[in-house]
Automatic annotation (TrEMBL):
Domain of life: Eukaryota
PANTHER family: ACTIVATING SIGNAL COINTEGRATOR 1 COMPLEX SUBUNIT 3 (PTHR47961:SF13), DNA POLYMERASE THETA, PUTATIVE (AFU_ORTHOLOGUE AFUA_1G05260)-RELATED (PTHR47961)
UniProt name for this protein: Activating signal cointegrator 1 complex subunit 3
Entry GO MF terms: ATP binding; helicase activity; hydrolase activity; nucleic acid binding
Taxonomic source organism: Meloidogyne javanica
Limits of the Helicase C-terminal domain: 152-370
Length: 677
């Protein structure tokens, strides 16, 4: 059984050398199949289309199962998966829900804001024994954000009075902590702090003491501070340890209210009696504007309301602008079908199929599209994809439209030198550049950046380390990384101590931030901010792959200097070492040598070959350590003696005969080991 992400399986099935693994598959299960509407949807479509084509061409018996809790147009997805509607299609509506769900939709508007502020001012005056005001001054009017916080707080308090736990969903990592602190202030002002505490009235149970002790191990101080008030936060910027700790605290009842992002709804099964969505605006970094949260996200979050093992019902609350209230109510009852996002990734997916040899002409490309969800929805809702109903009536299969669609994509790939396209005979063939992009999962936009010699950065014949790391940082694979004002102080510190190369773009840009974090990763700098740490991990997972792809492109183009520089940078990222660092650090990584000794050797700028020629006694004096251990450790580094004969054949070809002699002591801990069976 293999459990993996769609992207990982996409990479595996693209490559011809992994054909044997693909042939072993007999069952393919896609969980959360409604992600077809998401940015990752085209990857799922590509995988299923490739599998369906394999079933048809090779008569391979593969069963495909799609699972979803929020799928409005399940019939379309069933058609896409080639499901027999009489035997293989199962739909469970709200009647099958273990506990019924109550839904509350709240809209915020100006008049309500004024009334609520006035009510609060009157209550405060009555408590002080003063005359309650009848009007409110302009400077005390709430903003929409403050109003939503107030409404959210009042709803939360109501659930807490009924002794229920609450999950509150916000739409940014920073907003979780901000809302939690706002709740602490509101509870203090209203004398309701005890309402949020699990243990009150002096009663302290053993389970709470265990939870309190466990919270001392939290890496985030903010979590420790909020726990004292009965609150918690959960988002992708926290470390895995802290996220699991928060989930455990909430499950065991040590936390009554938790602020979280949608990551919790999609990735973790953590239900509560009540869930509240505070606000519906989310920032789209690709468009640079605020957009409304999708109805599928709302349904997924509402799906966390209700716990069959504890309660007999659940409650979902959404707080939004009054102008958008009708929109969400209508969407809930109308069940808008999910659409395909395949058009946005057609260039990458088409290139992958051409590179694998599955498509050799435009007719085969059109046939391939017939296997996609995009084709199903194109015929059902052509206006969504820019096709007129008249065109659909003329050509029910839409082959003319798909032909133009594929021709346009092929032309763009040809201009970018990823394929060769013959518009007369409609033939397409892969190039080395296209194969590299497919094998290393590099996007069309990144290849476009590499080829664009008129842009600020591109791949050229003579490149320095600084230029290569700037090119990697500018790739489209990192486009979703955001800049946050709260991170600038730490980024400045990392740029001062962790960056050994000049950062070309400013730290306020995505490329500059990625550059700084990538250099900090190589330098092994400590990152304090958990959101930055999470992004650092993402960058480290992708930068090495991109560096290897750029290395292969430079190698194919015959650029010796750039090829060497790219290979060096790829190794730097993989090994987390700069070229000027001593290779002895590898020994320190596996505890074969003390890191203090390595630092002493680096401070003396000793040449590795000079160290190799020294005896154990001299090494002991030099490093103030056990000379014998240092002597043996140095001989574990892979020194190779080379004998070579070189003969020119033509002006561009030389023949090299080389004999390699290992001159080192093999160590399984350093070089790795594997079984031979």
């Amino acid at each position: 059984v293999l459990v993996l992400t769609p992207e990982k399986w996409d990479v595996i099935t693209r490559k011809s050398d992994d054909e044997e693994l693909s042939q072993l598959v007999r069952l393919l299960i896609i969980d959360e199949v409604h992600l077809l509407h998401d940015d990752r949807g085209p990857v799922i479509e590509a995988i299923i289309a490739r599998t369906l084509r394999r079933i048809e061409v090779f008569h391979q018996n593969i069963r495909i199962v799609g699972l979803s809790a929020t799928l409005p147009n399940y019939n379309d997805v069933a058609t896409f998966l080639r499901v027999d509607p009489t035997q293989g299609l199962f739909h469970f509506d709200g009647r099958f829900r273990p506990v019924p769900l109550a839904q509350t939709f709240l809209g915020v508007r100006d008049s309500e804001r004024q009334a609520l502020v006035l009510q609060r001012e009157r209550e405060k005056a009555i408590r002080k024994g003063e005359k309650p005001p009848t009007k409110i001054s302009q400077n005390k009017l709430m903003t929409q954000k403050e109003m939503m916080d107030e409404v959210c707080y009042q709803k939360c308090v109501k659930f807490l009075h009924d002794k229920h736990q609450v999950l509150i969903f916000v739409h940014s990592r920073n907003a979780t902590g901000q809302l939690a602190r706002t709740f602490i202030d509101k509870a203090a002002n209203a004398n309701q702090r005890e309402l949020f505490l699990v243990e009150k009235g002096g009663e302290v149970t053993s389970s709470y003491l265990k939870a309190k002790k466990a919270m001392n191990n939290a890496q985030s101080r903010e979590l420790q501070f909020l726990f004292q008030s009965g609150l918690g936060i959960h988002h992708a910027g926290l470390t895995r340890h802290d996220r699991h700790l928060m989930e455990k605290m909430f499950t065991e009842g040590a936390i009554r209210v938790m602020m979280c992002t949608a990551t919790l709804a999609w990735g973790v099964n953590l239900p509560a009696y009540a869930v509240i969505i505070r606000g519906t605006e989310i920032f789209d970094p690709q468009k640079g504007i605020f957009t409304d949260i999708g109805i599928l996200d709302v349904q997924q979050i509402f799906g966390r309301a209700g716990r069959p093992q504890f309660e007999d019902m659940g409650h979902g609350v959404i707080i939004t602008n009054v102008q958008k209230l009708a929109h969400y109510i209508e969407m809930f009852h109308r069940q808008t079908p999910i659409e395909s996002q395949f058009q946005s990734r057609i260039l990458n997916n088409l290139n992958a199929e051409i590179a694998s040899g599955a498509i050799s002409n435009i007719s085969e490309a059109i046939e391939w599209i017939h296997f996609t969800y995009f084709y199903i929805r194109l015929r059902k809702n052509p206006l969504q994809y820019g096709v007129d109903w008249k065109e659909l009536r003329k050509d029910s299969q839409l082959n003319a439209y798909l032909s133009d669609f594929c021709h346009s994509a092929a032309r763009r790939l040809d201009v970018n030198r990823m394929i060769r396209y013959d518009p007369i005979n409609n033939f397409v063939s892969a190039t080395d550049l296209g194969r590299i992009a497919s094998n290393y999962y590099i996007g069309f936009e990144t290849i476009e950046l590499i080829n664009d010699h008129n842009g600020p950065i591109s791949l050229t014949e003579m490149m320095t380390d600084e230029m290569i790391i700037a090119l990697i940082s500018s790739c489209s694979e990192f486009a979703q990384i955001k800049n946050r004002d709260s991170e600038m102080t730490e980024l400045d510190e990392l740029a001062s101590f962790g960056a050994n190369l000049k950062i070309r773009s400013g730290l306020a840009t995505t490329a500059g931030k990625v550059n700084c974090l990538l250099q900090s990763y190589i330098s092994r700098a400590f990152v304090k901010d958990f959101a930055l740490s999470s992004e650092l991990y993402y960058i480290s997972q992708n930068a090495g792959r991109i560096a290897r792809a750029i290395f292969e492109i430079a190698l194919r183009r015959g650029w010796a200097q750039t090829t060497e520089a790219c290979l060096t940078m790829a190794k730097c990222i993989e090994q987390r070492l700069w070229p000027f660092n001593s290779p002895l650090r590898h020994l320190a990584d596996v505890d074969l040598l003390s890191f203090n000794i390595v630092q002493k050797i680096e401070s003396r700028r000793m040449n590795l070959f000079s160290l190799y020629d020294m005896d154990a006694k001299d090494l002991g004096y030099l490093c103030s350590g056990d000379g014998k251990v240092i002597y043996e450790a140095i001989r574990m580094l892979p020194f190779i003696d080379v004998e070579a004969n070189i003969r020119p054949i033509t002006c561009t070809i030389i023949q090299i005969e080389a004999l390699l002699y290992p001159s080192f002591t093999w160590c399984d801990r350093l070089g790795g080991a594997q079984r031979f069976w």
